[in-house]
């Protein structure tokens, strides 16, 4: 573009560049046309890059040589700074830099160290501005802050606030370090998640962080046993860890309201739905011996645990009629090194006489718990166990208030589902609410919703099939135990997977026919009493 002056001359105000595929035309001030191809430009760029790479490699080699020789001086500190400024993900150089700083700690005064570390923090800020996702930079900043003579945790917390307000997810781990070192109160951090979630319901990391804070600030208190329910003979004492990861009911009800606001605002955002699933989750099962089974004919003892264990390393001891027994515990299948069911054979003729009565005790010494089992005369087998209904294994025990709130939540989700009939998150949450309230009563509706899920989210139909199979197996176990039988029948239900097989340890008859099972898993060996199987 040209302009003309009063003297009739002219000057260039701008020099337009016109690109035609592989050729670039640029005007000069003399009006002559020069042509430079992109291939030529690429060659020049590669030459410049090669030149920089040679300088970088030479500086790197000098650093490696200095480290090998044990040189820990300020020249090495400056050299690593230059290299890390261009590549903050070079972990070896961060390690070398820490070695230099630790050496300086031994030869410098406290005030000098404070200045060195403050300079290091400034350098780290420049690295993070260049590459905020650099794990090495965040880790090194935590290391530096922890070793500073006079750390400014308020400043570091403010830095985290700024980064997280920009949704820089890599800052979360560093924030946890700052919070721990500076002693920030849990309620203050919970209010911080309030702000982030309030400004952006899609902030998944904030929801997750909130799930780690709530059990600390509002833990669920273990309820004392009622006078009408006393532990039976052989029942283990209650574990203090049973409620360690749960939230008290009062706060839980408030969280339901908060998360409902989120998913009604944006039903297709998955962050709030995932958090809601966490709220509906059951408490972790306590470590316990859930079942002891003894067979007089086979002279065998089977022990069921609340989780997979390695019996040979957790300290399992069998006492028969007051005498410790030397037995060899083995898993029910060679591939299951950690298993919830373990068995052992008793010495020959130990309990074979049907006219004798025997008392067994299995001690889990690592967890300081045990379970007793009596084999009465005239009986060929005996067991002592907590049923799935006793353990509330497949649903949480609900108070009247919580039941009312969850029922209201179910009504709200049903209303949302009418507005958003193809929303998979809403459908899946409705299923979870139904299972929390009454898994057997809502069984028909649950199966219908699973069918809809497979249609609206066909890419995950196999996942929904496995989840549906899991819920049907749970319901069948509950029905079996309510009927007080040892027959497990779940034929022609399109089962795609088997689970909870440790709960079938005592089953004698099983019917899995006309399903979609391709093979039986190794866990099928947990059915230690099985006599008849229809597959």
TrEMBL record:
Parts forming coiled coils: 32-59
**Source species, domain of life:** Eukaryota
Q: Which InterPro entries match?
A: LRR_dom_sf, Prenyl_trans_a, RabGGT_asu_insert-dom_sf, RabGGT_asu_insert-domain
Q: Does the keyword RNA-binding apply?
A: no
UniProt GO BP = prenylation
Q: Which reaction does it catalyse?
A: geranylgeranyl diphosphate + L-cysteinyl-[protein] = S-geranylgeranyl-L-cysteinyl-[protein] + diphosphate
Recorded hits in PROSITE patterns, A to Z, give: PFTA
Q: Which key words tag this protein in UniProt?
A: Coiled coil, Leucine-rich repeat, Phosphoprotein, Prenyltransferase, Repeat, Transferase
Q: Where is this region: Disordered?
A: 218-244
Among Pfam families, the record links this protein to: PPTA, RabGGT_insert
Q: Which GO terms describe its molecular function?
A: Rab geranylgeranyltransferase activity; zinc ion binding
Q: Does the keyword RNA-binding apply?
A: no
Residue stretches of biased makeup (Pro residues): 222-240
Indicate the segments forming the Rab geranylgeranyltransferase alpha subunit insert-domain domain, all copies. Answer: 289-388
Give the family, as the similarity comment puts it: Belongs to the protein prenyltransferase subunit alpha family.
What the protein does?
A: Catalyzes the transfer of a geranyl-geranyl moiety from geranyl-geranyl pyrophosphate to cysteines occuring in specific C-terminal amino acid sequences.
Protein name as catalogued = Geranylgeranyl transferase type-2 subunit alpha
Q: What is the lineage of its organism?
A: Eukaryota, Metazoa, Chordata, Craniata, Vertebrata
